[in-house]
């Protein structure tokens, strides 16, 4: 089969509510903030969106079917561990990750000062070179629940190749 016939694209999305009393973790990095994301795991919306994009590219379902949000095993889970587990499951089915692009929609805090750390963390978690990984940040121009700082949303697209 041609190289093009072996390419698979995947898309992922996640949103978590911002609340008091939780640490804000994005891309595997702790970001100092008065509010953190609520979830069963560490609620790392960026890693969840990327995990879902990988599962999508491989036609392997979604994050909740692999790691149930009612399973005590995943309470407070490090989403980096879940992401690495999915990359390994995909590898066993013959899929290799090529690149990731992603967007965080986050009115506050400002993510630019943390971008290099998130970029490096994501590259390391995914076993990809830095030039195959991208993270973008957007405010929501103060519109809606994202603009009111009630939540952070993440979107991701990945490209994968199947076979040798
Ligand atoms: N939480 C955020 C949001 C955005 N940025 C950076 O600001 C730029 C402009 O954002 P707009 O939403 O006004 O288009 C954006 O391109 C990011 O570089 C940020 O650092 N943290
Ligand atoms: C990751 C899981 C599992 O701990 O829990 P949450 O942190 O609530 O995250 P969500 O984005 O709802 O996705 C799937 C869950 O099963």
TrEMBL record:
Catalyzed reactions per annotation: 4-CDP-2-C-methyl-D-erythritol 2-phosphate = 2-C-methyl-D-erythritol 2,4-cyclic diphosphate + CMP
Report any Pfam family annotated for this entry: YgbB
Example of a GO MF term: 2-C-methyl-D-erythritol 2,4-cyclodiphosphate synthase activity
Q: What class of enzyme is it?
A: lyase
For this UniProt record, give its keywords in alphabetical order, as a comma-separated list.
Answer: Isoprene biosynthesis, Lyase, Metal-binding
Question: What role does it play?
Answer: Involved in the biosynthesis of isopentenyl diphosphate (IPP) and dimethylallyl diphosphate (DMAPP), two major building blocks of isoprenoid compounds. Catalyzes the conversion of 4-diphosphocytidyl-2-C-methyl-D-erythritol 2-phosphate (CDP-ME2P) to 2-C-methyl-D-erythritol 2,4-cyclodiphosphate (ME-CPP) with a corresponding release of cytidine 5-monophosphate (CMP).
**InterPro entries in alphabetical order:** MECDP_synthase, MECDP_synthase_CS, MECDP_synthase_sf
The protein's matches in SUPFAM superfamilies, at most eight in alphabetical order, are given as:
IpsF-like
According to its UniProt record, the EC number is 4.6.1.12
At the top level of its lineage, which domain of life is listed?
Bacteria
Q: Hey, which pathway is this one from? A: Isoprenoid biosynthesis; isopentenyl diphosphate biosynthesis via DXP pathway; isopentenyl diphosphate from 1-deoxy-D-xylulose 5-phosphate: step 4/6
Name any cofactors this protein relies on: a divalent metal cation
Family stated for the protein in its record: Belongs to the IspF family.
Write down the species: Limnobacter profundi
What gene makes this protein?
A: ispF
The name this protein carries in UniProt is: 2-C-methyl-D-erythritol 2,4-cyclodiphosphate synthase
Domain 2-C-methyl-D-erythritol 2,4-cyclodiphosphate synthase intervals: 7-160
The protein's site described by Transition state stabilizer is found at: 40, 139
Cofactor note from UniProt?
A: Binds 1 divalent metal cation per subunit.
* Record Gene3D superfamilies: 2-C-methyl-D-erythritol 2,4-cyclodiphosphate synthase
Q: How does it assemble?
A: Homotrimer.
Give the residues the record marks as binding a divalent metal cation: 14, 16, 48
Which residues are involved in binding 4-CDP-2-C-methyl-D-erythritol 2-phosphate? Answer: 14-16, 40-41, 62-64, 67-71, 148
